[in-house]
């Protein structure tokens, strides 16, 4: 049904809600975004303004109790021109609420959607929001069960992104091993 999130969308969002540090991992590697010094990463509220502006997930990097970077995480499974209008609202509203820089991290399951989502969004003259987009290409290939165990959510993203990879069997086995360390509810959602 239109407007209803799919299980893939929900799994992508839950990975960040369950383990917010995944956003920091993806920003720093493979995108090499310089992250401010921070002591921990927390999950923030996705309600950024009136109800029609609700982010999928908000991750906050903090130095002590001080927010130093706010990450709006959006799971995007297809082109949706409305997002080009709402994404800047998410980032700027969160920036104003937390009084720290903000960034938009868009997670896409396919290369075509990732390509569309990565286009800079002109907010106005001299103001552009450039999304950081995780599509299949930059997601690391995780074949080592030990590495997968350290970040089960990254192992799931690897399996989603690289299902046609020559090492897909190793990727899938690493993901299954990693899911043994995740609670049953999340393991089932991620596996599906």
Structural class of the secondary structure composition? alpha/beta
Report helical residue fraction.
40-55%
Low-confidence stretches: none
Strand order of the largest sheet: 1-2-3-4-7
Strand content: 15-25%
What is the CA-atom radius of gyration, in angstroms? 16 Å
Number of helices: 8
β-strand number: 7
C-alpha termini separation = 19 Å
- Largest sheet descriptor: 5 strands, mixed
Label the overall shape: globular
**Residue-averaged pLDDT, rounded?**
88
Explain what this protein looks like in three dimensions:
The chain has a five-stranded mixed sheet with strand order 1-2-3-4-7, with helices on both faces. The chain has a two-stranded antiparallel ribbon with strand order 5-6. 36% of the residues are buried. Helices cover 41% and strands 21% of the residues. The model has no long low-confidence stretch (mean pLDDT 88). With 192 residues, it is α/β, with parallel strands linked by helices. It is built from eight helices and seven strands; from the N terminus they run ααβββαβαβββαααα. Helix 6 (152-161) runs antiparallel to helix 7 (168-179).
